[in-house]
Amino acid sequence: MADSDVRADKKVQTMTDHNVYDSDQTDDLPSNWGRWGDDDERGTLNLITAESRLRGYAELASGEVVSLAVPISPSLFAGGGPWPRSQVLSPPPVQQTMTYTGSPPRALSDVLLIYTHHVHMTHIDALAHIPLDGLVYPGKSLFETTRGGTINHGSTSAFTGGIVTRGILLDLAPGARLDAEYVIHAADLDAALERTGRSLEPGDAVVIRGGWRVREREDIDDPYPYFALDVIQWLADHDVSIIASDVGDRVLSKPGAEIPLHDVALARLGMPLIDGAEVEELAETADRLGRWAFLFVCGPMPVQNSTGVPVNPLALF
Amino acid sequence: MADSDVRADKKVQTMTDHNVYDSDQTDDLPSNWGRWGDDDERGTLNLITAESRLRGYAELASGEVVSLAVPISPSLFAGGGPWPRSQVLSPPPVQQTMTYTGSPPRALSDVLLIYTHHVHMTHIDALAHIPLDGLVYPGKSLFETTRGGTINHGSTSAFTGGIVTRGILLDLAPGARLDAEYVIHAADLDAALERTGRSLEPGDAVVIRGGWRVREREDIDDPYPYFALDVIQWLADHDVSIIASDVGDRVLSKPGAEIPLHDVALARLGMPLIDGAEVEELAETADRLGRWAFLFVCGPMPVQNSTGVPVNPLALF
Amino acid sequence: MADSDVRADKKVQTMTDHNVYDSDQTDDLPSNWGRWGDDDERGTLNLITAESRLRGYAELASGEVVSLAVPISPSLFAGGGPWPRSQVLSPPPVQQTMTYTGSPPRALSDVLLIYTHHVHMTHIDALAHIPLDGLVYPGKSLFETTRGGTINHGSTSAFTGGIVTRGILLDLAPGARLDAEYVIHAADLDAALERTGRSLEPGDAVVIRGGWRVREREDIDDPYPYFALDVIQWLADHDVSIIASDVGDRVLSKPGAEIPLHDVALARLGMPLIDGAEVEELAETADRLGRWAFLFVCGPMPVQNSTGVPVNPLALF
Amino acid sequence: MADSDVRADKKVQTMTDHNVYDSDQTDDLPSNWGRWGDDDERGTLNLITAESRLRGYAELASGEVVSLAVPISPSLFAGGGPWPRSQVLSPPPVQQTMTYTGSPPRALSDVLLIYTHHVHMTHIDALAHIPLDGLVYPGKSLFETTRGGTINHGSTSAFTGGIVTRGILLDLAPGARLDAEYVIHAADLDAALERTGRSLEPGDAVVIRGGWRVREREDIDDPYPYFALDVIQWLADHDVSIIASDVGDRVLSKPGAEIPLHDVALARLGMPLIDGAEVEELAETADRLGRWAFLFVCGPMPVQNSTGVPVNPLALF
Predict the structure, then answer these.
(1) Where is the composition biased (Basic and acidic residues) (chains A, B, C, D) (predicted)?
(2) Interchain CB distance below 8 Å, B4 and D11
(3) The pLDDT value given to residue B142
(4) C214, C194 in Cβ contact below 8 A?
(5) Per-residue pLDDT band at A258 (split at 50, 70, 90)
(6) Is the predicted pLDDT of residue B3 greater than 90, yes or no?
(7) Helices (DSSP H) in C163-272: which residue ranges?
(8) Which residues pair with B277 in a beta bridge?
(9) CATH number of the domain at A3-70+121-316, out of 1.10.150, 2.40.50, 3.30.2320, 3.50.30?
(10) How much of chain D is helix, strand and coil, in % rounded to 5?
(11) Closest chain D CA to residue B80
(12) Cβ A104–C99 below 8 Å, yes or no?
């Protein structure tokens, strides 16, 4: 068979799935492209001001601190003997090896290897993480963005100064969990917001609880509650600055899934996402205190030019 | 020459330097071994209470946030073309490569490789980082601590819940910098504390500024201000919970140096250290506001069982 | 500006260069697609038989062994102290760190990090290394080939049994080097072959010397002798099984370059390439012995499913 | 409890096991320290000459090639989606990730991470791999050897030119396998050698088959045939240059095991070891051909200054 025939046969198989919200739906979907200029890299973080922080300070009362991150037990990429010591899920989010530091060792040291977007690890997605029709927020070409094999625009560089604002917990299933098949809509967020006794202000951070943990699913394709598109519109309407959640998009192994949190909130609104947050302790604390607003403080490891980094956001009460 | 003769000749060369504060000086040096029990892993973080945080909250006024970390520009361990693109200092603190994610890429992702104690990177030292006579705080054997090739005691696991307390900036050279040859004593800290108008309370975090940046030194052995031993006694007397600084110990390339911040404060007091902090912006902000006390918030990447991790501590005003 | 307008503007910038030999030139260029079936993964290695090896054995006479690989001095990704110790070109081909193995260390061990196609490292390219219009030899889709984030077809798996055959050195500039601007044509190979006193047989390996070392160039875009397209036709006509060379394609930093060794020999002929071979010692040995044919023996590190691995091919005389 | 009391209690726990053949047994055990000078780095490879290779050439007859390495299927350290795709033994010998190379990808490339002494991977041990009483062959201090965090003496640098000599297969259990509890003695090697119809000459390589595969054991401490000390004396008496085997030392998880192949042959004789060789196909080929001598050709990846590298030794018939 001539090469050209083979090529024609296979062409359809070369395309992976892509952001399904690009092409025709431009005018219907919320977008912040251009809102803060053509070179903007901070997206909805631009909505956070000193007033946002003062609003968060006003919520401080009793001194509790709750981490919104899942502790990660690293597996080893070397060491502990030259034989395998355990079985682990692969790839893992973090791997470690201790380094040789003399005999006797002057200090103990190590190296960490981090797979930045692993679903089992609480991490922040930078704005360049999800392209939209070959462009990244707010319209930079993929080519320019990735020139030199690193991220030149919309990277984690935008986060190095820290992210501090008022946070509100929207617990969608207080004291329980959503059904596995549940589709989350804007009305669910409204109901949860009402329970907090607060109104959202532009620049607030939102933490959403559905009561599920990705890492406890046996199979990546098991059912899992997820956001419908109108949730993203709700986030846009409220000018939320950043979202952390235990539920959001369904990450499926087959291509073609609709993932509006990534494909619309991140890619079009320029809203950083904190994936895989741990929210159970936050919900219990909020219930106990009878308060669902707090100071949200996130100091990401200040590595620039990356697509994401692990984070440990803290909720201060 | 018989093997035994060769071995006798070389024995003296097999020993690297060690913690010079171990052997005979036990009774003279400050120590917290046993203060919180034989299995304690939190060291001076035990001194932080809700009251510590409320004390920090009381300092909040205007909404500024200052990062105490150096932004890190990663070098590449692969990518950007199969040829070398630049010259870099090696080893670097962080390396990156972007991963293949389909054609076209569904998302942009990467891997980060982190050398946890690199002097050019703001990082937190876990208590196990510095052994003392073959033991780590508060007396666990090196063997048990490193069994399995990871850190089983006194690791970064103690930090995953976050570190939040009141912080005080001790600027040793306001608007200037210390001389390269300066040796810092307790009296210098007293003077700086007085300028803050605050008294230190047990559990407070201390940030110290000498006006120097490790990463700007040409050669690791260039002179650099450092702490004398009495500074450590001062930290112990004030029951400081954690210290971040731009100066502290001199890291020298030749063994045998006295490094009391690591060898006494960390190893004996169980005080976590934040090495290589960036404090210039903090000092400028404090000067401008006329306030040197703030809320200190640190949410380290929650990787357990490691000797240290990069951090981005935030000072909230 | 509406998103669609921005997208239209940028589209042209999203395309990187591609294999310029794909589209229209199919019928004019040499190709082995389909010659050994639609699922073939060995390409021109199929031409090597026991007879090829016997032909190589017939060349053995005096017992010399010459390595065709550049020794690699790894840089460190950690260790040797927590400060940078040197300046290195980045990314480097190989990085090392020694691992912690107890106190005192029971054994000394390390980890190596290898960037498989680094131009300063002698390595073998697997057939999947260069796609042709979204397909890899002999017509598998990129999608299928890279499913699961590894190489499922045309990978280094084809090399794990070793590559042993007769080898012929074609020294294009005996005792000298080609001009920097020289374009190498089939006639140059014919002349060099004549000097060897041998005829090429199907299955032979060819080693080509131009007298240049990639790693000695200051800048990747400095002039460097390279193959014209007719050299590839010559390799095809002679049914060469594998090629190792110090010259071949010009690797340029700007896209669009014509690289027929990779884009035609590898991608269309299914001919594995050994890039960045070290051939000076081979040439000197051949001259001294007055023999340019030898037994070519290559035992690549048997890692499967990769795009390439470092190699150390040996020429036995 | 005062620190000094704690330290006394724990001292005995700080020592890991060490090379049990060091102290008093010097004069009874075979050693090559000093035989080739105090700065020698090649050990028993010094015994290989052109004559060794000619002896190997004389065995060539029919053109078969057998690899003595286990093919390695790498696991992923990133890629294939941001979720874990499989369960693997950890740490694994090799990990891979494919790198981002543009959209569409100009080429497919990857990075490999190699744990050099993993028992499931065929690898060569450099002479510095096993210290002897704080010294490495032929008497260099550990301190000097590891200065700068890399291997300065007795490293893989000695192997970059390739290792080519005659090889002899000693099949200890033709057509069968040794009992799990079998202890291998010199007499077993004599019997196997006799079956080959050859005498060993200084400089020959020896490949030993017991019929076991490390990687097929469920637990590292399951019984496994191993060498008694007199096997090492036999290797010394015959001036073997290098040994590859499927059996040899028992690698146990608890310290204190006697491992004479590593602790005496490698550390005292300066004999490089190829651990974890795959010998079944070699034995079958030898049986079929009725010949157990061959040309042994090993071209290790030419990475210098390491403790070991993966290898793919080839046996040519």
Answers:
(1) 1-12
(2) no
(3) 95
(4) no
(5) confident
(6) no
(7) 186-196, 229-237, 260
(8) none
(9) 3.50.30
(10) 25, 25, 50
(11) D101
(12) no
